[in-house]
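Appendix C reproduces, verbatim, an entry submitted by the partner laboratory led by Prof. M.T., so that reviewers can inspect both the input and the predicted structure.
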Amino acid sequence: MSAHVIHSARLVSDGHVVHNAWVRFEGGTIAATGTGDDWRAGSAGTAAPDPVPVTDADGAWLTPGFIDIHGHGGATASFDDGPESISRALDLHQRHGTTRAVVSLVTAPVAALAESVRAIAGLTREDPRVLGSHLEGPFLDVGHKGAHEPRLLRPATRDDIDLLLDAADGTLRQITVAPELPGGLDTVRAFSAAGVAVAVGHTAADYAQTMEAFAAGASILTHAFNGMDGVHHRAPGPVAAATRTPGVTLEVINDGVHVHPEVVRMLFAAAPGRVALITDAMAAAGADDGDYLLGSLAVEVRDGVARLAEGGSIAGSTLTLDDALRRAVLEVGIPVEDAVRALTQTPAAAIGRGDDLGRLAPGFAADAVLLDDDFGVLQVFRDGAPVAR
């Protein structure tokens, strides 16, 4: 059985920082953790002190592998373009610490989306980095469309729901819905009953309508503040409904463009343990400025900011999760243990994987990231093995 020990680390997991910590991986899972020099004596999870590969962290940060539950691509590749493009984009994000990801798809005809989620279902069986799919559309509000093709946006029908669920074969992890559309609450109930995490987003829903959606089973707010009305003192809107409701996860794109750092700080304070840092990254993440496509829409990326060529709406991001972490701690002022939880434990729980992902604890997946003092990635481990940098 393959094994690996990382020692002398500042371990960040479960909302705590543990100094001089060690972790032992065995067979793709975490066998044991501890502090000090116990790892030397064979007390790190086996009966005999067999030689194993050892990494001296030398005081570096050690976190669980990052989990991105909302991203669309990277390295010039779009998740909408099939398995080869998905793999190339995931390679890029893995180098930045993301060891597992939900593959997000933008609005397209329902039949085309069904084929895409069917292909992604196959990838979940072949590539452990792929946790399943996220449909960000087409059941969205035209008035809050963002970077979605408005001609394809519409309410869901029962046939749509059945087709998508059948094609995904249990791998549809998340779907974004505007619950105020005709039949919207029934759509929330149907997907939720099928085990899909339903997110409220790209929506004209007010506070009361959003609360109804959460009562019907929705459990995520898609990229808080973007694609919805903001907080007004007489019209608190979807964000306030999400912070008010226990168990609801609030996605945030912490790139300094989508949401002001002070507003990010307010969200962490208003919903402790319930903020998930996401990338919402499109193909230009990790690539040069230039002209791209997001679905069928032309996107211009200038100075790392992606906007629709027509209308200028923000069109995803060029963010990676290590940068989201760095900004959260060094710019926003979030405690490191809370920031790390927002891209590990919280997103894992949001999609029903909180029992095996997102923590550095025995029995969990042996995914980890070593980072320097400024949160630059030093080494990534997935399934207990170091990933080539």
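The chain is about 25% helix and 30% strand. Additional entries are available on request from the coordinating office.
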